[in-house]
Design a protein that fits this description.
Keywords: Transferase
Order of helices and strands: HEHEHEEEHEHE
Number of strands: 7
Strand order of the largest sheet: 1-6-5-2-4
Number of helices: 5
Largest sheet: 5 strands, parallel
Number of domains: 1
GO molecular function, one term: thiosulfate-cyanide sulfurtransferase activity
EC number: 2.8.1.1
Enzyme class: transferase
Domain Rhodanese: 39-129
Strand content: 15-25%
Length: 147
């Protein structure tokens, strides 16, 4: 008996529903980089790590908002019409999940960045350092995404 087919595949509609829901929760580095380069105003990127980690290198334009500091008072300044993309170090860290959970529980629209800063760097997207969010570079080399 087939190991793959031991449990029947989902129907096309079940797959469509599940995959659409999955895409509602996550974005990847390529899609986010494209939107940041195009300066899409409806997206805010949140680095959910500690300030020291943020200063040591972060996504250009990301604001530092550690998940441990998120509550109704500290998020009052955020624009509820935006979609917040949270990230942390990578797949071994759940800071982005905690940040997304806290923001969602407070009524914000959120997505998590798949692979966090690890995948961002792996794919060669630009970083900046220090306390400021930084600007997206004027000319970024175009890398190739194989998907």
């Amino acid at each position: 008996m087939s190991s793959v087919l031991r449990i029947p595949a989902a129907t096309p509609q079940q797959s469509l529903d599940y995959l659409q829901a999955k895409l509602a929760f996550y974005t990847d580095a390529w899609d986010l980089a494209e939107d940041l380069e195009r300066q899409i105003p409806d997206i805010v990127v949140i680095d959910a790590r500690a300030p020291e980690a943020y200063r040591a290198g972060h996504i250009c334009g990301a604001i530092n908002f550690p998940h441990r500091e998120m509550d109704a008072t500290t998020t009052a300044r955020l624009d509820r019409s935006k979609v917040y993309v949270t990230y942390c170090d990578g797949i071994g860290c759940n800071g982005s999940t905690k940040a997304a959970w806290k923001l969602a529980s407070l009524g914000f629209q959120v997505k998590e960045l798949i692979g966090g800063l690890d995948f961002w760097k792996r794919d060669g997207h630009p970083l900046t350092w220090g306390d400021a969010p930084g600007e997206w570079p004027v000319a970024t080399p175009k890398a190739f995404c194989g998907c």
